[in-house]
């Protein structure tokens, strides 16, 4: 069975635990400059299917996720809506819904942070847990999505999936001339560092407050919650939740998809 259709354990909660509805915001408005010339990154294909469709399927694979808000390129919301309608899950679901997961599309902004904020503003009431997931991480396994949801349901205000580093990391000073040697000033203890992925999961009120309060340009939502002084916890991430950023990442993503298809026999 594929990761896209595998049943999700995230709803197997004890009977006394209240149901908390989960929504996901998928920022997909980036241009993909580092990937090179072409369509906006989220609309480029992997295995013949747009990256964004893989990402929405990955989130919708969790039974806990009842709404996905896709944040499209600023002038591309209608195109993205048509694309998602055309790729709705098999079974003849109505427009705007993939199985038991509804979706909506809103236009994004100039930065990831602004796009996430616009997605959050569009969220209807009734979803108390919000995941934020990069469209550029199309192959995240459902078990990782569910682990993040579980940690928020267990009481964490902010949760990030994260992996230990494979490389030693150096802190450097800027080079004297562009492209020149960069003086190394420190080697942080790798054992205490993590590479952070998405989906990141939040208590909705905390995430909204973070986006209302923090004005610095930051690269992930959890760091905004850190700036509020609220605790953020890391849970194990997954190698297949990597971000498609540069051309070589596309090669890896195609290989992962091909392996899944071989394993699943389709
Ligand atoms: N104005 C922006 C910029 C980024 N993103 C989204 O944020 C996620 C992570 O960003 P990144 O991988 O950096 O994507 P791009 O900004 O498209 O890449 P680049 O920096 O190479 O242009 C992606 O899903 C991207 O679509 C967004 O919604 N709105
Ligand atoms: C949110 C993120 O994917 C966590 O690793 C990352 O920070 C996005 O960074 P980018 O520079 O926008 O690719």
TrEMBL record:
It is an enzyme of class 2 (transferase). Keywords: Isoprene biosynthesis, Nucleotidyltransferase, Transferase. InterPro entries: IspD, IspD/TarI, IspD/TarI_cytidylyltransf_bact, ISPD_synthase_CS, Nucleotide-diphossugar_trans. Its EC number is 2.7.7.60. The record marks 34, 41 as: Transition state stabilizer. It catalyses: 2-C-methyl-D-erythritol 4-phosphate + CTP + H(+) = 4-CDP-2-C-methyl-D-erythritol + diphosphate. GO terms for molecular function: 2-C-methyl-D-erythritol 4-phosphate cytidylyltransferase activity. It comes from the Bacteria. PROSITE patterns: ISPD. The record marks 190, 243 as: Positions MEP for the nucleophilic attack. Pathway: Isoprenoid biosynthesis; isopentenyl diphosphate biosynthesis via DXP pathway; isopentenyl diphosphate from 1-deoxy-D-xylulose 5-phosphate: step 2/6. It holds the Pfam family IspD. Catalyzes the formation of 4-diphosphocytidyl-2-C-methyl-D-erythritol from CTP and 2-C-methyl-D-erythritol 4-phosphate (MEP). Belongs to the IspD/TarI cytidylyltransferase family. IspD subfamily. HAMAP family: IspD. NCBIfam families: ispD. This is 2-C-methyl-D-erythritol 4-phosphate cytidylyltransferase.
């Amino acid at each position: 069975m594929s990761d896209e259709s595998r049943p999700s354990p995230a709803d197997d909660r004890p009977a006394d635990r209240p149901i908390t509805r989960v929504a996901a915001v998928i920022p997909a408005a980036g241009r993909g400059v580092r990937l090179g010339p072409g369509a906006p990154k989220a609309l480029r294909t992997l295995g013949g299917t747009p990256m964004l469709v893989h990402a929405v399927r990955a989130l919708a694979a969790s039974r806990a996720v009842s709404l996905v808000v896709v944040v499209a390129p600023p002038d591309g919301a209608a195109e993205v809506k048509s694309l998602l309608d055309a790729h709705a899950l098999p079974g003849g679901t109505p427009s705007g819904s993939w199985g038991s997961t509804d979706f909506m599309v809103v236009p994004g902004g100039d930065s990831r942070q602004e796009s996430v904020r616009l997605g959050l503003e569009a969220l209807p009431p009734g979803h108390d847990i919000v995941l934020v997931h990069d469209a550029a991480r199309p192959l995240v396994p459902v078990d990782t999505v569910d682990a993040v949801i579980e940690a928020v349901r267990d009481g964490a205000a902010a949760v990030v999936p994260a992996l230990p580093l494979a490389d030693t990391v150096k802190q450097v000073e800027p080079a004297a001339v562009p492209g020149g040697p960069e003086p190394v000033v420190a080697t942080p203890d790798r054992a205490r560092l993590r590479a952070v992925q998405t989906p990141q999961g939040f208590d909705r009120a905390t995430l909204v407050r973070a986006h209302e309060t923090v004005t610095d340009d930051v690269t992930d939502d959890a760091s905004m919650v850190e700036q509020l002084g609220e605790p953020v916890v890391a849970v194990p991430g997954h190698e297949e939740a990597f971000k498609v950023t540069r051309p070589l990442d596309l090669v890896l993503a195609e290989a992962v998809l091909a392996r899944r298809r071989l394993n699943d026999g389709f």
